[in-house]
Amino acid sequence: MTSFTFEGRTIEAEDGETVLSALLRGGHEISNGCQAGACQACLLRSGDSVPRAAQNGLDDTLIERGIFLSCQAKASDIQSAERLDNEVFPRFAAKLVDKQWVTDDVIIASLKVDGWQGSPGRFIRLHSSDGVSRPYSLAAPAWMEPEFVQLHIRYIPGGAMSESLKSATVGNAFEIEGPFGKCCYRTTDQQEPILLIGSGTGLAPLYGIVTDALRKGHEGPISLHFGAATSSRLYFQLELKKLTDQHPNFQFHTYADSEVLENDRVGSPLDGALKEHAKLDGYKVYLCGHPNLVKAGQRKCFLAGASLKDIFADAFVAA
Amino acid sequence: MSTLYEKLGGSAAVDAAVDKFYRRVLGDDRISRFFEGVDMEQQAAKQKSFLTMAFGGPNNYSALDMKTGHVHLVAEGLDDSHFDAVVEDLGATLAEMGVPAELITEVAAVAETTRESVLGRI
Question: Which residue from A21, A142, A262, B60 has the least number of CB within 10 angstroms?
Fold first, then answer.
């Protein structure tokens, strides 16, 4: 048994139990989602030192304030914890202005958010009017106007946010909280090569990062490799094709496992990318999409020479 | 008199060594299986604190932490041969970085002090 203080009360926890689990078991309402350290829904703050492992993927500004992932911290790691003030993450009113099905399981939603400062590639939490919230990555802003946030939403039948968006119509109100995460265009050198690898709606942040890099005048080669289960589930090729026409330093390749059409390669985008880029010394690498792809990608890209600090990963975990 | 940590170059040396050391460990067939499926970012943070400790730098490693942190690996067969492999990889990393042999011996000696707790024999 171990214990910690939560907003003035003593919380008893089992050995090895997480802070989040102990609080939920004690009847405290703590918002949470993936419980895998990805969605950042369960953030709490501690005045004591917090293990670095419980702050993975958080912005430096949050780390400095002692904010941590309560699903990743063991109860024995901390002495005290409290909920965050509301003002830590401002919420923005958002209005749905466009909604398109681009495959049979992906909706692209565009929302107008007054005062939004875009940071493509990072993620936000979308709140529906019926109180459901889910994390989504920021693609490039719709029509390249910063106030129009664009999200690529994987439709999961029966999913609370999926169904809410399926029935939503233009003009419906939502709220957006954030942005969070570190996955965005970070330039230390305009000439450095950038490799982006992803699957499914992992394309959203990758496309956001590519357009942001090109808009900011990145000069080094940018190579995007992304895949889906079948060719019919790949989308956005026209937009990407347009970018390659405008920017000779950008190229992309699409992959599918089965039912592969002529323009797509067979197999994994990770293997394909590493075949073309065998040595990754000096690269910035971005990995977004299925957790297995992201995990394998971090390892393989690191072993191929990319520095750990230059690998940015965002695993999409279903809530 | 400067300390071992200062002679090696302090936290900058640790930063320079992390990628090299971790890449060597992951590419070492004798021990890479113990790193299957681990979170790379968390693992990198752990490698960094291990290197800081082995370099004689400020750290809060306790024997108990070392023991509990490796219990699941000992259950999977972690033994002296694997510990030797890590120390060897550490030495090779430092040699690659141009660290003099007598300092490598000192680092190996610091790492050696964790053997019994890592392997759960305390």
Answer: A262
